[in-house]
Design goal:
This protein is mainly α. The chain is about 85% helix and about 0% strand. The chain has helices spanning about 5-10, 15-50, 50-55, 55-75, 80-100, 105-125, 130-135, 140-170, 170-190, 205-210, 215-235, 235-245, 250-275, 280-300, 305-315, 320-330, 335-365, 365-405. The chain starts with a helix and ends with a helix.
Length: about 400
């Protein structure tokens, strides 16, 4: 959607911050559903009689499909009211969680995860550009941080909560509880979200046009490297803590909860930093995601060491979503919904490639080798960010030299 269209279709909510919070709950719900198997991987694999690597498909499949569905949903939505699209997708998310909770075999589970992929792509793509339509211009930054705070909270907090429910009542109740939460979020949307009509529909040609935006393409490359590297390791964090760090089963959810709190803090710190210097913030995040897998190998052999490093990992990854989304909005301010759809697509390709590649590495080479691969991808992201920084500095120097002459 162009900036002109957005302004022309700006919605007035009676309680705009309630509406923003509702959208944040939608992103929290869909990403928590996406990430839920991470904290339950071992239990689901044993129950459905599959390998740990094969269980990673529960992350890979919906992420890959979300990458496909994100632009398709935006295009297919046409001029439909975004409020009803969000509500419909939340309804489908309820169904997906119910089917997951009842799945008797892996094919049933994967069928439910296909539906999750549709909801992920659609909700992310629509929600990403709503801040400017719900609050005044001066508050767009904070509203965006809240909406993507839902993503950060889900990525780093949804997993330990799901793991805790799974430990107490079994993994099926974790999905059942998620279905009830999604139903509650749907009711909240119906109560507080205003009408969100659009004045023009997104066309495929707008996606093609953005592929010529070098700044946007650089951001998409950073997205792929950072996200793939993270999920290559994090998809298998539970078996990592159990077998490498010697953490007792009863402490897994506690450590993941600490990771989650650190991630939420990282989200808001990165949101503030990215508003001033997006590239430097992403470079700091890349350094964190580069070092934590290596340090886990060196110092994570004890529960205490792994716990400290897990908190550092959450602090680094918690800022990924909001920082990269800030990059996208700055790169394409006149086509936020299209840029968001591309970002969501690449983000989820990163999740799919990371979790799939991690599964292959874990099954063939072991958990330790997989951590080296994850660190290498973060290193490539840091290298790319440095190259971008050098290029930006050179252009600024050339501009100053021309202006002085």
């Amino acid at each position: 959607m162009s900036t002109t269209a957005s302004a022309g279709a700006k919605s007035t909510a009676c309680h705009p911050w309630l509406a923003v919070t509702a959208v944040g709950l939608a992103t929290f719900s869909v990403v928590t559903t996406e990430m839920l198997p991470v904290g339950l991987l071992t239990a689901i694999a044993e129950s459905l009689e599959i390998s740990t690597g094969a269980a990673g498909l529960m992350i890979t499949l919906p992420a890959l499909l979300a990458a496909l569905f994100a632009p398709l949903v935006v295009i297919a939505a046409g001029r439909l009211d975004r409020r009803w699209i969000l509500c419909s997708l939340l309804g489908l998310l309820v169904i997906a969680n119910v089917v997951s909770a009842l799945a008797p075999t892996m094919p049933w589970m994967l069928a439910a995860r296909v539906l999750v992929g549709l909801c992920m792509g659609g909700i992310w793509a629509i929600a990403g550009g709503l801040a400017a339509r719900l609050v005044p211009g001066r508050s767009i930054g904070l509203a965006t941080a809240i909406i993507f705070g839902g993503v950060a909270a889900a990525s780093v907090l949804g997993v330990p909560v799901g793991a805790l429910i799974g430990d107490l009542a079994g993994w099926r109740w974790a999905f059942g509880s998620m279905a009830m939460l999604c139903a509650l979020v749907l009711l909240i949307h119906l109560a507080v979200l205003p009408r969100l009509p659009v004045n023009s529909s997104v066309r495929p040609s707008q996606f093609a046009a953005l592929l010529g935006n070098r700044t946007l393409l650089a951001g998409l490359a950073l997205t792929l490297l950072l996200v793939a590297g993270h999920f290559m390791a994090f998809t298998f964090v539970r078996p990592l803590l159990l077998s490498v760090s010697g953490v007792g089963v009863q402490w897994i959810s506690v450590l993941l909860f600490a990771y989650g709190i650190a991630g939420i803090i990282g989200n808001f710190l990165a949101g503030l930093g990215a508003a001033h210097s997006t590239l430097r913030t992403l470079m700091a995040i890349a350094v964190g995601l580069l070092l934590t897998p290596i340090l886990l190998l060196a110092l994570g052999g004890s529960p205490v060491g792994s716990g400290v490093l897990l908190v550092a990992w959450g602090l680094a990854y918690g800022g990924v979503s909001v920082s990269l989304m800030t990059w996208m909005m700055k790169a394409a301010p006149g086509a936020v919904e299209v840029a968001t759809a591309l970002y969501v697509g690449v983000f989820n390709v990163g999740i799919a490639l990371g979790s799939w590649g991690g599964g292959q590495a874990v099954d063939r080479l072991g958990l330790a080798t997989n951590l080296w691969f994850a660190s290498a991808l973060a290193g490539l992201a840091l290298l790319l960010a440095c190259v971008i920084g050098v290029g930006n500095g050179k252009r600024q120097a050339d501009s100053r030299a021309q202006s002085s002459t």
